[in-house]
């Protein structure tokens, strides 16, 4: 089988490996689609994603979908040929009591395609993948594996919405309309937001936001509607956060979805005090991927988040497209 490894910034390699047979309690699946995430792009561009620094080659990817090929001994409730996605996180030790319900913050958590731990955790950009059966998330009837490749980033978006609290009847801002920002629009609407304002410099991104359910799409936060009481910063750009803090209404909630740089940034924090803002972080997700597949099954419009599709052998071109200003979610095909 072929897998996609990162060896250094800009150095992607297709590597031949033997598939791993499933052991007891495991499942082997044929990967059909893989979505390129901002973290994958970070390793490809600079060798860094957030606070994780690449020290040696590893397999990229954590957004995948496919079909079960083989069941290990003792696995029940799943079937060969079944469409699935995969929860990419694993823990091997008990969760500290103070983190109950927040498994995403486990200090020993590993995640597919991540350099956060050493040794690094190989990802899922491979034609064949063997995982523990409890990582498998079956797809609801009618959900294609192509659309299901969005389940992991939608889980991230849904967790961000959860961090914001009840959105029922709220006016919401989403700043940054890349793939996760677009999925935050989808998740916020599903959570009951009454009005959604999207902000992005790129016209194509604004158009996608409107297609995903935003009520309006603007170039900046200047003159923002003072009824907006919840904002999601989804670009990871300090200037975007600065604009939100300056423009958001008093007593608002601001959720930081986009990864900010691991170095000091310039942001005017005075409004956090003078407006008594509630600034919250959000990190990956807990079990929201299970709700994500249900939302995807009922939302055909979600597929508009996917802008480009490339065969695995064209991975370099796929990463270049994903890094371009006109793209949204770029996916690889593994068949």
TrEMBL record:
Swiss-Prot/TrEMBL keywords:
Metal-binding, Oxidoreductase, Zinc
Cofactor(s) needed by this chain: Zn(2+)
Name the UniProt record assigns to this protein: L-idonate 5-dehydrogenase
Q: Domain Enoyl reductase (ER): where? A: 7-332
Q: Which Gene3D superfamilies match?
A: Medium-chain alcohol dehydrogenases, catalytic domain (3.90.180.10), NAD(P)-binding Rossmann-like Domain (3.40.50.720)
Against InterPro entries, the record matches this protein to: ADH-like_C (IPR013149), ADH-like_N (IPR013154), ADH_Zn_CS (IPR002328), ER (IPR020843), GroES-like_sf (IPR011032), NAD(P)-bd_dom_sf (IPR036291)
What's the family? Belongs to the zinc-containing alcohol dehydrogenase family.
Q: Name one GO molecular function term.
A: oxidoreductase activity
Upper lineage: Bacteria, Bacillati, Actinomycetota, Actinomycetes, Micrococcales
């Amino acid at each position: 089988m072929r897998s996609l490894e990162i060896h250094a910034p800009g150095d992607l390699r297709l590597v031949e490996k033997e598939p791993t047979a499933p052991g007891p309690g495991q499942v082997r699946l044929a990967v059909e689609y893989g979505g390129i995430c901002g973290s994958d792009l970070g390793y490809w561009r600079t060798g860094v994603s957030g606070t994780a620094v690449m020290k040696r080659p590893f397999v990229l990817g954590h957004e995948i979908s496919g079909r079960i090929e083989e069941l290990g001994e003792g696995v029940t409730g799943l079937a060969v040929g079944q469409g699935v996605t995969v929860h990419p996180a694993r823990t091997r030790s008990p969760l500290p009591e103070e983190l109950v319900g927040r498994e995403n913050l486990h200090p020993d958590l590993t995640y597919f395609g991540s350099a956060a731990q050493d040794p690094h955790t190989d990802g899922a950009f491979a034609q064949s993948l063997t995982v523990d059966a409890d990582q498998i998330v079956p797809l609801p009837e009618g959900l294609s594996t192509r659309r299901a490749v969005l389940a992991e980033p939608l889980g991230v978006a849904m967790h961000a919405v959860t961090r914001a609290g009840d959105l029922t009847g709220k006016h919401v801002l989403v700043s940054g309309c890349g793939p996760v920002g677009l999925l935050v629009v989808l998740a916020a609407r599903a959570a009951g937001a009454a009005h959604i304002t999207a902000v992005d410099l790129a016209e194509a991104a604004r158009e996608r936001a409107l297609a995903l359910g935003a009520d309006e799409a603007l170039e900046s936060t200047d003159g923002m509607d003072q009824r907006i009481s919840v904002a999601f910063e989804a670009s990871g750009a300090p200037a975007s956060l600065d604009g939100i803090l300056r423009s958001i209404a008093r007593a608002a909630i601001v959720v930081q979805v986009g990864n900010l740089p691991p170095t000091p940034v310039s942001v005017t924090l005075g409004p956090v005090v003078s407006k008594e803002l509630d600034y919250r972080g959000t990190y990956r997700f807990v079990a929201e991927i299970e709700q994500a597949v249900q939302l995807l099954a009922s939302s055909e419009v979600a597929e508009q988040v996917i802008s480009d599709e490339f065969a695995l052998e064209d991975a370099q071109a796929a990463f270049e497209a994903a890094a371009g200003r006109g793209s949204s979610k770029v996916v690889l095909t593994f068949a």
